[in-house]
Prior knowledge:
Blueprint: E1 9-15, E2 19-26, E3 29-37, H1 44-63, E4 68-73, E5 78-88, H2 98-124, E6 131-143, E7 146-147, E8 158-169, H3 170-183, E9 189-190, H4 193-204, E10 208-213, E11 218-224, E12 227-234, H5 238-249, H6 253-264, H7 270-297, E13 306-309, H8 316-323, E14 329-331, H9 334-337, H10 352-364
Parallel strand pairs: 1-4, 4-9, 10-13, 13-14
Antiparallel strand pairs: 1-2, 2-3, 5-8, 6-7, 6-8, 10-11, 11-12
Helix pairs in contact: 4-10, 5-6, 5-7, 7-8
Amino acid sequence: xxxxxxxxxxxxxxxxxxxxxxxxxxxxxxxxxxxxxxxxxxxxxxxxxxxxxxxxxxxxxxxxxxxxxxxxxxxxxxxxxxxxxxxxxxxxxxxxxxxxxxxxxxxxxxxxxxxxxxxxxxxxxxxxxxxxxxxxxxxxxxxxxxxxxxxxxxxxxxxxxxxxxxxxxxxxxxxxxxxxxxxxxxxxxxxxxxxxxxxxxxxxxxxxxxxxxxxxxxxxxxxxxxxxxxxxxxxxxxxxxxxxxxxxxxxxxxxxxxxxxxxxxxxxxxxxxxxxxxxxxxxxxxxxxxxxxxxxxxxxxxxxxxxxxxxxxxxxxxxxxxxxxxxxxxxxxxxxxxxxxxxxxxxxxxxxxxxxxxxxxxxxxx
Length: 366
């Protein structure tokens, strides 16, 4: 039910590790939004509650065949992998035909999938048979080192591809299929942070490292000169700081999470805030070190701005630790991505991933 022109109505759902966030937008005005706590086992309950809230509006959209549904998953479940591949042609003196162009692209897709899945298990412990390719896109093509818009009609020996694969866990594919059938969502656009960030940074001509700090994982996306240079994830997020509180102060995880949220909102006494800051600083330094190591291991010893968003970005200690690496650090807020009317969370970086999904949906329905 996705429109062929820019959609004026978008229903965005973000399924994280701990929370489900949603946002209903019509003509860039927020109609309905909210957050529901998630349970890994009973994930249907918040979905049922959400559906009760939005079904009347959504079904009226669907009847008119208007509107777009965009869905984001935590990087624990939705993975993005970038790859480069060079393929050598057997007849470089002849022009590439349409069939050969398709065959070369298919071969690149095959190798991207194989290499990505082989690397996935040692990196994340996920078996390759438990993951499905959801989407594949070619970002750049070159022939003998020269960029070309298409392959067909060009001559040359070496064809180079740069592409992106988005992979979804089979368990969450089942969840997606259930949502489609139970809640009549049609075919939602699945949005990965890397894709939405790249589209945003490319259009706005912004260079930088975009850091989406989720609950259990953090996504890294580097965009330079309107090109996707690097994407990765690190096994650390806001819940690492929750764990520090739980272990040190002897709290249950949910109580520690509430204390962390109150700390971010400035609702605790000065003494308690000072104690929590002491606990958070070492974890924040470990976090910034992880990011720097990932960039350096990829051969990216560059200095460029860093844009933080996601729930973990609200911790001041994270920003301070990254600033020690002599980087320019800024929060990427929802209002920076899309200026929505009637959206109280427009200054809350926790909702930036959700608004980036909206941005992705808009760009895909131009």
